[in-house]
Amino acid sequence: MDKPMINLYEKFQLDCLDVISLTDDQLECLCLVLENFENFRGLELLLNLLPPTVPEKSLAKSVLLRVKAVLLFHQGRYEEFKEYIKLNKFKQKDHNLLQNLWNEANYAEASKQRTKPLDAVSRYRIRKKNIFPSSIWDAREILKQAYKIDAIPNIQTKQELAKQTELSVLQVSN
């Protein structure tokens, strides 16, 4: 019984909030608080209150991009989520979170088509089939540039590349 009242209260607070007059820092802080508390309904209300021009002009654009992606994922809109990830460029610090969500979205879609739960092999195949787009994984570009400079890198260079790309030395070698 308390839950609907909380939702109405949150909606009232967000409706009364003059979103247009928020500074970029305030908007970013509000998004982060709602995201950290996993208040996805509040995030949705906030994003719907923003004028269409705010995300484009805002310094908080990277936070708004991530929050929108997280919201799409938590709403179960996996196709939209994946398309949104492909169409936008995200900051390096958001890559790990978005990569995890990317995999989970693919697992969720695959599990809908199966009668039995996904096992480790199935998950591996899904990951191989659905590689991360360049918007959330820049390791491929780093490797391309490194191999242009030195087509046959030594083990030390491979270790540095592995650390830089968060891959294993074996993956860098292949």
Automatic annotation (TrEMBL):
Residues 23-133 form the Homeobox protein SIX1 N-terminal SD domain. One of its GO terms (molecular function) is DNA-binding transcription factor activity, RNA polymerase II-specific. InterPro entries: SIX1_SD. Keywords: DNA-binding, Homeobox, Nucleus. It holds the Pfam family SIX1_SD. GO terms for cellular component: nucleus; transcription regulator complex. It comes from the Eukaryota. PANTHER family: HOMEOBOX PROTEIN SIX, SIX HOMEOBOX 4. This is Homeobox protein SIX1 N-terminal SD domain-containing protein. It comes from Meloidogyne javanica (Root-knot nematode worm).
